From TrEMBL:
Signal peptide: none annotated. It comes from Intrasporangium chromatireducens Q5-1. This is Peroxiredoxin. NCBIfam families: osmo_induc_OsmC. PANTHER family: OSMOTICALLY INDUCIBLE FAMILY PROTEIN. GO terms for biological process: response to oxidative stress. GO terms for molecular function: peroxidase activity.
Length: 139
């Protein structure tokens, strides 16, 4: 079953002096202020496209890994995932996923192997293949 999720952005002014909002339309979960300064300098309580990408990537990866662990007979008690998206104007230059898992009965080696496979199969990882994605695994 295919689904479509929608977000929108509103911007006023020039790139450097202007500002705007990003809104999660499908869920209605929130509206977030954005600006160039928040993107390229200090966040100052605002978000950026890179932070939104990081949130999507961390969430998708955790879901993918959780499913793969369960299918392997080792459901995770918990997974803590962070995605860090590097931005050097005008490009996103890299992404680092960091995952720590509490997976009873699974060796650290098998967890790392499954974590690597999940990185390759994660739909957001696939969508972001133009950027180097590094994985750091902690057990």
């Amino acid at each position: 079953m295919a689904t479509t999720r929608t977000a929108s952005a509103h911007w006023e002014g020039t790139l450097f002096e202007g500002s705007g909002t990003a809104r999660l339309e499908t869920s209605g979960a929130g509206q977030f202020d954005v600006s160039w300064a928040a993107r390229a300098e200090q966040a100052g309580g605002k978000t950026s496209p890179e932070e939104l990408i990081a949130a999507a990537h961390a969430t998708c990866y955790a879901m993918q890994l959780s499913n793969m662990l369960a299918q392997a007979g080792h459901p995770a008690e918990s997974l803590d995932t962070t995605a860090s998206v590097d931005f050097a104007p005008p490009s996103i230059t890299g992404i680092t996923l960091t995952v720590k898992g509490n997976v009873p009965g699974m060796s650290a080696e098998d967890f790392k192997k499954t974590a690597e496979e999940a990185k390759e199969q994660c739909p957001v990882s696939k969508a972001l293949q133009a950027v180097p994605i590094k994985l750091e695994v902690q057990s």
